[in-house]
Amino acid sequence: MRKDIPRLLRQASLDGVLVLDAAQDNPNFKFATKGAEIKGYYLWPARGKPTMLYGAMERDNLPKVPGMRAISFTEIAHYITKKKKKSKKPKAMTMASRFAMLVANMLEKVKFKGKLALVGKVEAGDLLEFASALNKQAKGVKVCFDGEASRLFKLARATKDEDEIAIIEEAGKRTEAAVREVIKFIGSCRAKGKFLVNGKGKKVAIGHLREILLNKLALGGMDCPESPIIAQGEEAAVPHNIGTDSRNVLVGLPIVIDVFPRMTTTGFFFDTTRTVCPGAASAELKEIYSQVLKVQKATMAMVKAGVVGADVNRLALDLFEDWGHPTLRSHPGTTEGYCHGLGHGLGMNVHEWPNLNPGWSEKLKKGSVITIEPGLYYANKKIGVRIEDVLAIMPNGQVKNLCRNNKKLEIKLKG
Fold first, then answer.
1. 388: which DSSP letter?
2. What DSSP element (H or E) covers 355?
3. What 3 state SS string does 340-405 have?
4. Which of 129, 211, 346, 414 could disulfide-link 190, Cβ–Cβ 3.0 to 4.6 Å?
């Protein structure tokens, strides 16, 4: 949670962190500025109030952070000018050095001293140049960029407060509405031989389903930094195969719909998966689907504060292996059966701490938001099944499922 950052900084013997660069595709900046659409530098001290250094043209987009001090680049430029006793011919400076000069004077103006960590999304070369210049120009400040600040942000973002969980839940409502739109369209179609055709008798392609999904997400204020997965048959049996748009949808084969969009206004992601079958499913597909659903229900029932993520995954391994499916534990390196982890944290990245994989020894906490997504995959049978919900452990300890869509496998077709 945001409130944890000052405490984590003090525990790491850091006096503050400077979060750099634009908010676009920069989750730590979004986290620091509470989702503000603004560029600049956010100084988050271990003690005291934060400071935002920004461009005056973006003054209406300033973060709504209580007690935050806002200083424009123009104000700092005037501050620098007043300090100079006589005019000097300005030296040629790179962009990184120029911004380092502005930040150094901002630090001086707010009387910041001590160890300052850097975090954000910046090109490696620019970051090195900026840090080197800032170290030279900022008096009484030691710049650190050893990765410690990134780790602290991961820790802080691993739990969410009630407001953040509410935002993720809203993202879920919009995401699930888009998934329902796809399922509704499939149900409006009919079978023509082995193919799915629309009301005009035209074959339906995977790309058309993706178009329906993306359009509905866009109308709901969601975007997709990565393409959602809509894959059928042997493509669905490879967990991260996004599906071939030109491929015609077939009747009787499972379609994995895995959607992980981002809310454009807040930067928070959602992640949900449903597996559906146009028309009647085979007995084998029904059995595999039933087993995945049973594993999901059993592992979700185990989730609570204090439980170790790896222990939840162990239950999934036990159940799948009891039914004779290969897993990464029983068959290391397998690409069929249960061949991935059970889930992961969700927030301003699709994959955040904590996770539910074998190597994760940390306990789930109040505020953890995680996915539960067991699956089984058999390319030779043209079967891939995955079911994914998002669980939030609320501040009162209650576990809330943020997904509402049903989990029916078969979609009844027209005719």
1. B
2. strand 352-355
3. CCCCEECCCCCCEEEECCCCCCCECCCCCEEEECCEEEEHHHCEEEECEEEEEECCCCCEEECCCC
4. 414
- pTM given for the model: 0.91
Place of tokens 């084969």: 253
Please give the full DSSP string across 216-230, using - where no structure is assigned: HHHHTTEE-SSPPEE
pLDDT in tens, the chain (415 residues): 989 999 999 999 999 999 987 656 789 988 999 988 888 999 999 999 999 999 988 889 999 998 999 999 998 888 887 766 544 545 656 777 888 889 999 999 999 999 999 988 777 777 888 888 899 889 999 998 767 888 899 999 999 999 999 999 999 999 999 999 999 999 999 999 999 999 999 999 999 999 999 999 999 999 999 999 999 999 999 999 999 999 999 999 999 999 999 999 899 999 999 999 999 999 999 999 999 999 999 999 999 999 999 999 999 999 999 999 999 999 999 999 999 999 999 999 999 999 998 888 899 999 999 999 999 999 999 999 999 999 999 999 999 999 999 999 999 999 7
Strand partners, 305: none
* 3 state DSSP class of 115: strand
Token digits for 324?
């004779």
What is the C-alpha separation between 276 and 186, in angstroms, rounded? 10
> Whole-angstrom Cα distance, residue 130 to residue 143?
10
The number of CA neighbours under 13 Å toward the Cβ of 388 is 30
Which helix (H) or strand (E) segment holds residue 18: the answer is strand 16-20
Distance CA 264, CA 59 (A): 20
Burial per residue of 3-40, b for 16 or more beta-carbon CB atoms within 10 angstroms, e otherwise: ebbbebbeebebbbbbbbbebeebbbbbbbbebbbbbb
Contact in structure between 224 and 261 (CB atoms under 8 Å): yes
**CA separation for the pair 97, 172 (Å, rounded):** 42
Contacts of 219 (CB under 8 A, 6+ apart): none
At which residue do the structure tokens 């452990």 appear? 393
Cis peptide before 278 (omega within 30 of 0): no
Which has the closest alpha carbon to 75: 61, 90, 55, 57?
55
Residue 110, phi-psi category: left (phi > 0), alpha (psi -120 to 50), beta (remainder): alpha
- The most distant pair of C-alpha atoms in the chain lies apart, rounded to whole Å, by 87
